[in-house]
Amino acid sequence: MTGQRDRWADLTGGQAGEEYARRFAQLAASGHDIHGEAAFCAALLKPAARILDAGCGTGRIAIRLAELGHHCTGVDVDPSMLAVARRDAPAQEWLLGDLARLDTLGLPQGFDLALAAGNVIPLLAPGTEPAVVRQLAAALRPGGLLVTGMGLDAAHLPLPEPPVTLTEFDHWCAQAGLTLRRRYATWNGDPYHHGCGYAVSVHARPAP
């Protein structure tokens, strides 16, 4: 651990797992599609891909991707979230760890896709964002993809103002050797335009 509290911990105190899971269960019960992120990622992948769900939370996305035939490893810093994931999918790999120190977890490299959904990047510990992007890039195989979703204004964040801009994020990705491939406004693939409150970005590690 870096010893610095992430913004998520400041918001929740690290006790949000059950509440978070109930919220999505209620959405599913009311007819909402809660698998948009998984469908988006699955469309980018070949069968039986290796996926790193960085900031996996309660495992909602990784569990769905595993149901679709992919091999998923989830990493999160919040034990309350991982407790739900381990209960719901005990056969999957769930690791407690700091994304800024992903290399200390003993993960094999060469993931086909690393996912940081659910405002993972804006909710990191302040100042650790470039290190996290470097760690995620390093975990990818050549040609692998980093897929991220993040709010860009207060309406799309659990924060009064956005701590990260797309310009900063793209700069960190470029420093880590990643190239922007596509950007959307939603997980449904709606076109992105300047001023959108949310961005789904697909960066790639160049192939040799």
Which properties best describe this structure?
single chain, 208 residues, alpha/beta, 7-stranded mixed beta sheet
Structure description:
The protein is globular. A seven-stranded mixed β-sheet has the order 3-2-1-4-5-7-6, with helices on both faces. The protein contains seven helices and seven strands. The protein is 31% helix and 22% strand. The model has no long low-confidence stretch (mean pLDDT 90). It has helices at residues 7-12, 17-29, 36-42, 60-67, 79-88, 129-139, 166-175; strands at 50-54, 71-76, 93-96, 111-116, 140-151, 179-184, 198-204. With 208 residues, the protein is an alpha/beta fold.
Quick summary of this structure?
With 208 residues, this protein is α/β, with parallel strands linked by helices. It has helices at residues 7-12, 17-29, 36-42, 60-67, 79-88, 129-139, 166-175; strands at 50-54, 71-76, 93-96, 111-116, 140-151, 179-184, 198-204. The chain is globular and about 40 Å long.
Helix content: 25-40%
Please tally the helical runs, counting DSSP H or I stretches of 4 or more residues. 7
Output the radius of gyration: 16 Å
Order of helices and strands: HHHEHEHEEHEHEE
Structural class: alpha/beta
For the terminal residues, how far apart are their CA atoms?
33 Å
Main beta-sheet strand count, sense and barrel state: 7 strands, mixed
Low-confidence stretches: none
Q: What amount of the residues lies in strands?
A: 15-25%
Beta strand count: 7
C-alpha geometry? globular
Instruction: Enumerate the strands of the largest sheet in spatial order, edge to edge or round the barrel.
Output: 3-2-1-4-5-7-6
Averaging pLDDT over every residue, what do you get? Answer: 90
